[in-house]
Amino acid sequence: GAVVSQHPSWVICKSGTSVKIECRSLDFQATTMFWYRQFPKQSLMLMATSNEGSKATYEQGVEKDKFLINHASLTLSTLTVTSAHPEDSSFYICSAPGTGSLINYGYTFGSGTRLTVV
Amino acid sequence: GENVEQHPSTLSVQEGDSAVIKCTYSDSASNYFPWYKQELGKGPQLIIDIRSNVGEKKDQRIAVTLNKTAKHFSLHITETQPEDSAVYFCAAITLGDSSYKLIFGSGTRLLVRP
Lengths: 118, 114
Prior knowledge:
Largest sheet of chain B: 6 strands, mixed
Radius of gyration of chain B: 14 Å
Mean pLDDT of chain A: 90
Radius of gyration of chain A: 14 Å
Helix content of chain A: under 10%
Oligomer: heterodimer
Number of strands of chain B: 11
Structural class of chain B: mainly beta
Helix content of chain B: under 10%
Number of helices of chain A: 0
């Protein structure tokens, strides 16, 4: 079935540094990747939609200069949290919709990245 | 846009009992309704889904029902086991819509007491 591999699973960084999170579709081509943020005991909040070869679309209230998204290939999308601050600490999750023969798998999620900014 | 409401926010059941989680949606164009299970520190895992052309779908101990007229759908877990304890999210989307955005409910924390 469709698998999305997300790395790292957890990261601790100092305030002011940048952190890159990668999501790879392992057995299918993900032309679209969704990036979510989840605070403790809350639902998933869609941050942005990345499309291969074009600019990402950000949801209202999400700073595009802070959360840089790159979708340079059909199997890799990255989210970079720039100049991270403690309030950026959260659980970040990517998701890709199945396409073609995998469309019945719906949306596949990565395993998530726990970001802690100290 | 679509809005999905989910109830209850927490649910505690005795092992072996059934659990029911309910969701309502606002956009009548939505045609795909997945349910996800999320364990602590992990990404959501699809456990069952239903499309708008059917009213019920079952997979072993898990079933989902859909009422398009009332715009609500429910997850039913029978013979619950401690390993069913997790957070469950419902979602709705219009497949074929160019936005492809999954709209999630607020989640239900299920606790199965041994």
